[in-house]
Design brief:
Structural class of chain B: mainly beta
Organism (chain A): Chlorella ohadii
Subcellular location (chain A): Nucleus
Number of strands of chain B: 5
Strand content of chain A: over 45%
Number of strands of chain A: 5
Pfam families (chain A): LSM
Oligomer: heterodimer
Protein name (chain A): Sm domain-containing protein
Strand content of chain B: over 45%
CATH topology of one domain in chain B: SH3 type barrels
Strand order of the largest sheet of chain B: 4-3-2-1-5
Shape of chain A: elongated
CATH architecture of one domain in chain B: Roll
Helix content of chain B: under 10%
Shape of chain B: globular
Main location (chain A): nucleus
Distance between the termini of chain B: 33 Å
CATH class of one domain in chain B: Mainly Beta
Chain lengths: 96, 86
């Protein structure tokens, strides 16, 4: 009989379930990235993350040289509720 | 319609759902609406087209930007899933 702690991945959301209480990487719309501990999630990919580092990437074009200048802003957030529709990708920590 | 009971090759799948079933465990390219490509081994997918992939490489404008051991892609971002010869 399958239990809650079943370690197999039968559907994609199992991958998220196996990452509960682990650090995850989340790629969001609008060039935003989050790294934090996954406390909870649901089928929409709404998520509660803790001790989150948010990285916002911006590309500016130098008006004279037309070079791309990539700027990243980082900030720490103790607790974050993420609405699922902004999520593009979730990656669990590397398991050996 | 006689069902031979044999393993169907991807090319002979009858519906999109049959195709998706037939490519589990195979190397694929997933393209998102943003134009970003993910190349890796398809672990599984569901009815929302949420995708779990392994050994995933992220390509932006043809350049390798990131690698993920495992990754989950939310289905609403998916433009297409393509098999690759390897």
């Amino acid at each position: 009989m399958a239990t809650e702690e079943d370690n197999t991945v039968r559907e994609p959301l199992d991958l998220i379930r196996l990452s509960l209480d682990e650090k995850v990487y989340v790629k969001l719309k609008g060039e935003r990235e989050l790294r934090g501990k996954l406390h909870a999630y649901d089928q929409h990919l709404n998520m509660i993350l803790g001790d989150v580092e948010e990285t916002v990437t911006m590309v500016e074009i130098d008006e004279e040289t037309f070079e791309e200048i990539i700027k990243t802003n980082k900030r720490m957030v103790p607790y974050l509720f993420v609405r699922g529709d902004g999520v593009i990708l979730v990656s669990p920590p590397l398991r050996s | 319609m006689a069902d031979s009971g044999q393993q169907q090759a991807p090319s002979s799948a009858k519906t999109p759902a049959d195709f998706l079933k037939s490519i589990k465990g195979k190397p694929v390219i997933v393209k998102l609406n943003s134009g970003v490509d993910y190349r890796g081994v398809l672990a599984c997918l569901d009815g929302y087209m949420n995708i779990a992939m392994e050994q995933t490489e992220e390509y932006v404008n043809g350049q390798l930007k990131n690698k993920y051991g495992d990754c989950f892609i939310r289905g609403n971002n998916v433009l297409y899933i393509s098999t690759v010869r390897s």
